[in-house]
Amino acid sequence: MAEATTEDMHGRPILDHPILADDRTAAWLGLKVLHLDDGHARTSMELREEMLNGFGIAHGGMIFAFADTTFALACNPHHGSADTITVASGVDVNFLRPGIPGRTLTAIADRRATSGRSGLYDVQILQSVPGGEDELLAEFRGRSRTIPKR
Protein backbone atom coordinates (compact mmCIF):
# COMPACT_ATOMS: atom_id res chain seq x y z
CA MET A 1 0.00 0.00 0.00
CA ALA A 2 1.25 3.50 -0.81
CA GLU A 3 1.97 5.85 2.03
CA ALA A 4 1.66 9.61 2.33
CA THR A 5 5.05 11.25 1.83
CA THR A 6 7.15 11.63 4.96
CA GLU A 7 10.24 13.31 3.42
CA ASP A 8 10.63 16.47 1.41
CA MET A 9 12.64 16.72 -1.83
CA HIS A 10 15.82 17.25 0.23
CA GLY A 11 15.26 14.11 2.31
CA ARG A 12 14.30 16.04 5.45
CA PRO A 13 11.64 14.37 7.60
CA ILE A 14 8.08 15.63 7.26
CA LEU A 15 5.61 15.16 10.09
CA ASP A 16 3.34 12.12 9.93
CA HIS A 17 -0.01 11.36 11.55
CA PRO A 18 -1.52 7.98 12.52
CA ILE A 19 -4.70 8.55 10.46
CA LEU A 20 -2.56 8.66 7.30
CA ALA A 21 -1.28 5.09 7.77
CA ASP A 22 -4.27 3.59 5.92
CA ASP A 23 -5.43 6.67 3.97
CA ARG A 24 -5.08 5.61 0.33
CA THR A 25 -6.59 8.86 -0.92
CA ALA A 26 -3.96 10.97 0.87
CA ALA A 27 -1.26 8.70 -0.54
CA TRP A 28 -2.65 8.99 -4.09
CA LEU A 29 -2.83 12.78 -3.73
CA GLY A 30 0.85 12.81 -2.71
CA LEU A 31 -0.09 14.76 0.41
CA LYS A 32 2.86 16.01 2.47
CA VAL A 33 2.35 16.99 6.10
CA LEU A 34 4.35 20.16 6.78
CA HIS A 35 3.08 21.16 10.23
CA LEU A 36 0.90 19.64 12.94
CA ASP A 37 -0.22 21.26 16.16
CA ASP A 38 -3.30 20.98 18.35
CA GLY A 39 -6.14 22.26 16.15
CA HIS A 40 -3.85 23.20 13.27
CA ALA A 41 -2.32 21.48 10.23
CA ARG A 42 -0.46 22.53 7.09
CA THR A 43 -0.06 20.22 4.10
CA SER A 44 1.03 20.43 0.47
CA MET A 45 0.66 18.53 -2.79
CA GLU A 46 1.51 18.95 -6.47
CA LEU A 47 -1.42 19.41 -8.85
CA ARG A 48 -0.87 16.60 -11.39
CA GLU A 49 -2.40 16.04 -14.84
CA GLU A 50 -4.62 13.19 -13.61
CA MET A 51 -6.22 15.61 -11.11
CA LEU A 52 -7.67 17.84 -13.84
CA ASN A 53 -11.21 18.08 -15.16
CA GLY A 54 -12.27 18.31 -18.82
CA PHE A 55 -11.36 22.02 -18.90
CA GLY A 56 -7.72 21.30 -18.01
CA ILE A 57 -7.96 22.84 -14.53
CA ALA A 58 -8.10 21.25 -11.08
CA HIS A 59 -11.13 19.05 -10.53
CA GLY A 60 -13.11 20.44 -7.57
CA GLY A 61 -13.18 16.98 -5.99
CA MET A 62 -9.38 16.94 -5.81
CA ILE A 63 -9.32 20.31 -4.05
CA PHE A 64 -12.06 19.09 -1.69
CA ALA A 65 -10.19 15.84 -0.87
CA PHE A 66 -6.99 17.78 -0.18
CA ALA A 67 -8.76 20.28 2.11
CA ASP A 68 -10.82 17.55 3.82
CA THR A 69 -7.71 15.51 4.68
CA THR A 70 -5.97 18.59 6.11
CA PHE A 71 -9.15 19.32 8.11
CA ALA A 72 -9.06 15.74 9.50
CA LEU A 73 -5.43 16.19 10.58
CA ALA A 74 -6.31 19.38 12.46
CA CYS A 75 -9.36 17.76 14.14
CA ASN A 76 -7.67 14.60 15.39
CA PRO A 77 -4.82 14.83 17.92
CA HIS A 78 -1.55 13.33 16.69
CA HIS A 79 -1.43 11.03 19.73
CA GLY A 80 -4.97 9.85 18.92
CA SER A 81 -7.64 8.53 21.23
CA ALA A 82 -8.39 4.93 22.00
CA ASP A 83 -12.13 5.58 22.19
CA THR A 84 -13.09 8.43 19.81
CA ILE A 85 -12.47 9.91 16.37
CA THR A 86 -13.41 13.30 15.00
CA VAL A 87 -15.15 13.39 11.61
CA ALA A 88 -16.82 15.96 9.37
CA SER A 89 -20.47 16.68 10.09
CA GLY A 90 -20.69 19.19 7.24
CA VAL A 91 -18.53 21.39 5.03
CA ASP A 92 -18.73 24.34 2.67
CA VAL A 93 -16.18 25.00 -0.08
CA ASN A 94 -15.75 28.18 -2.11
CA PHE A 95 -13.61 27.88 -5.24
CA LEU A 96 -12.09 31.28 -6.05
CA ARG A 97 -9.88 30.62 -9.09
CA PRO A 98 -8.81 27.70 -11.30
CA GLY A 99 -6.11 25.31 -10.11
CA ILE A 100 -3.26 25.20 -12.63
CA PRO A 101 -1.46 21.88 -13.35
CA GLY A 102 2.10 21.66 -12.09
CA ARG A 103 1.56 24.16 -9.29
CA THR A 104 2.07 23.36 -5.61
CA LEU A 105 -1.02 23.61 -3.43
CA THR A 106 -0.78 24.31 0.30
CA ALA A 107 -3.66 23.80 2.74
CA ILE A 108 -3.66 25.56 6.11
CA ALA A 109 -6.27 24.36 8.63
CA ASP A 110 -7.09 26.24 11.83
CA ARG A 111 -9.58 25.45 14.58
CA ARG A 112 -11.95 28.39 15.13
CA ALA A 113 -14.15 27.07 17.95
CA THR A 114 -15.22 23.98 19.88
CA SER A 115 -18.26 23.27 22.01
CA GLY A 116 -18.64 19.86 23.58
CA ARG A 117 -18.19 17.29 20.81
CA SER A 118 -18.57 19.85 17.98
CA GLY A 119 -15.93 21.99 16.30
CA LEU A 120 -15.52 24.59 13.58
CA TYR A 121 -12.42 24.74 11.35
CA ASP A 122 -11.30 26.90 8.42
CA VAL A 123 -8.95 25.66 5.71
CA GLN A 124 -7.29 27.98 3.21
CA ILE A 125 -6.04 26.36 0.00
CA LEU A 126 -3.22 28.34 -1.60
CA GLN A 127 -1.69 27.89 -5.06
CA SER A 128 1.93 28.67 -5.86
CA VAL A 129 2.61 31.40 -8.42
CA PRO A 130 5.94 31.24 -10.27
CA GLY A 131 8.02 34.20 -9.13
CA GLY A 132 5.26 35.56 -6.90
CA GLU A 133 3.32 35.10 -3.69
CA ASP A 134 0.93 32.19 -3.27
CA GLU A 135 -2.66 33.02 -4.22
CA LEU A 136 -5.86 31.93 -2.50
CA LEU A 137 -7.40 29.13 -4.58
CA ALA A 138 -10.28 28.06 -2.31
CA GLU A 139 -11.69 28.29 1.20
CA PHE A 140 -13.15 25.33 3.10
CA ARG A 141 -15.14 25.57 6.33
CA GLY A 142 -15.58 22.29 8.16
CA ARG A 143 -17.87 21.38 11.02
CA SER A 144 -16.63 18.45 13.09
CA ARG A 145 -18.18 15.97 15.49
CA THR A 146 -16.35 13.65 17.87
CA ILE A 147 -17.90 10.18 17.86
CA PRO A 148 -17.13 6.77 19.38
CA LYS A 149 -14.54 4.73 17.51
CA ARG A 150 -15.95 1.55 15.96
Automatic annotation (TrEMBL):
<keyword id="KW-0378">Hydrolase</keyword>
<dbReference type="InterPro" id="IPR006683">
    <property type="entry name" value="Thioestr_dom"/>
</dbReference>
<dbReference type="InterPro" id="IPR052723">
    <property type="entry name" value="Acyl-CoA_thioesterase_PaaI"/>
</dbReference>
<dbReference type="InterPro" id="IPR003736">
    <property type="entry name" value="PAAI_dom"/>
</dbReference>
<dbReference type="Pfam" id="PF03061">
    <property type="entry name" value="4HBT"/>
</dbReference>
<dbReference type="InterPro" id="IPR011973">
    <property type="entry name" value="PaaD"/>
</dbReference>
<dbReference type="GO" id="GO:0016289">
    <property type="term" value="F:acyl-CoA hydrolase activity"/>
</dbReference>
<feature type="domain" description="Thioesterase">
    <location>
        <begin position="55"/>
        <end position="126"/>
    </location>
</feature>
<protein>
    <submittedName>
        <fullName>Acyl-CoA thioesterase</fullName>
    </submittedName>
</protein>
<dbReference type="InterPro" id="IPR029069">
    <property type="entry name" value="HotDog_dom_sf"/>
</dbReference>
